């Protein structure tokens, strides 16, 4: 079952069969348009996979969409969040208030939500400004790129680890830890139907943002984690059979393994292109300079300050992966941090 992405106004809640439903929930002001929230039936009430953005229109779409499918938001048993981003976790707290159900997410993302909750707005602005400066952004760009952030999502009641079964009576919904997009991103394998809820990990047409924050961290490799996670989901399913993917955006598609392999190849090409770009530069480059010379969906000059900041995060993740592979090095003791290619 496959449906190409259409504008949100053309989307409708759908019965996907086998006790699984999808409800499109709008994301105000986002080119993605909507999050696909899924409901999985159980004798004790449905469990939602993600919940959507925290906005009155989104709540109306979620609760009304469930009602159109014969489901009552007040009967929801729980919400399992694929990752903490606001278009996935934003409404989880309101669902909990309406139903008395639980919220579950991976322990690594739960730790980030706790940190976000404790981090006051002015402290966050200072952190972000210093991160941008150390990446090589000029003062004007720093001022423009620092902006408001969404309120943190509700704290979860339950924390999941890789391999845990979600509390879904009568069914087997297993958490598969797929870090990269966030440290605690999970896919959810509905083993009794051999379907995979992929969140943002594997999408049919676009690729998720893989960034590193702060940009100059050298103790993590989110892109390396992401590539390993792609291999892992490609190996799920009985006897290696391909599975139908139920992603959080765009459309449902078959053969998650084939799409995971495509995404891995895309990033491997991007890493090689970046290594080659650095090898042609006689001087070490800042993260900001590297981001400006990479290829994005629009020219660097046309990107908004906020999008430039995200691009820098993605450039930093690719630089870190190349560094972990011994293909580039960061210069010690310089501010802003700079990288140069090593002989391959």
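-> sequence recovered:
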């Amino acid at each position: 079952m496959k449906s190409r992405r259409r504008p949100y106004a053309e989307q409708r809640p759908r019965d996907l069969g086998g006790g699984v439903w999808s409800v499109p929930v709008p994301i105000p002001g986002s080119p993605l348009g909507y999050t696909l929230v899924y409901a999985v039936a159980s004798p004790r009430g449905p469990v939602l996979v993600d919940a959507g953005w925290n906005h009155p229109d989104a709540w109306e779409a979620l609760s009304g969409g469930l009602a159109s499918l014969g489901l009552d938001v007040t009967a929801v048993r729980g919400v399992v969040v694929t990752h903490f981003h606001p278009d996935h976790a934003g409404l989880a707290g309101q669902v909990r208030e309406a139903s008395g159900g639980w919220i579950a997410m991976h322990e690594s993302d739960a730790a980030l939500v706790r940190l976000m909750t404790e981090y006051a707005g002015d402290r966050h602005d200072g952190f972000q400004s210093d991160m941008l400066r150390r990446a090589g952004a000029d003062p004007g760009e720093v001022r423009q790129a620092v902006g408001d952030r969404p309120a943190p999502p509700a704290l979860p009641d339950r924390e999941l680890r890789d391999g845990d079964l979600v509390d879904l009576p009568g069914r087997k919904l297993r958490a598969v830890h797929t870090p990269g997009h966030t440290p605690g991103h999970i896919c959810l394998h509905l083993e009794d139907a051999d379907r995979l809820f992929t969140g943002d990990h594997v999408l049919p047409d676009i690729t998720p943002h893989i960034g590193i924050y702060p940009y100059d961290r050298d103790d993590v490799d989110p892109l390396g984690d992401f590539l390993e996670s792609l291999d892992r989901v490609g190996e799920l399913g009985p006897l290696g059979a391909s599975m139908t993917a139920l992603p959080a955006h765009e459309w449902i598609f078959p053969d998650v393994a084939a799409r995971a392999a495509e995404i891995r190849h895309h990033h491997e090409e991007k890493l090689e292109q970046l290594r080659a770009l650095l090898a042609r530069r006689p001087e070490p480059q800042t993260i900001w300079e590297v981001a400006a010379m990479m290829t994005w969906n629009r020219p660097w000059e046309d990107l908004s300050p906020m999008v430039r900041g995200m691009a820098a995060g993605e450039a930093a993740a690719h630089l870190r992966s190349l560094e972990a592979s011994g293909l580039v090095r960061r210069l010690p003791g310089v501010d802003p941090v700079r990288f140069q290619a090593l002989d391959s």
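The longest helix spans residues 256-279.
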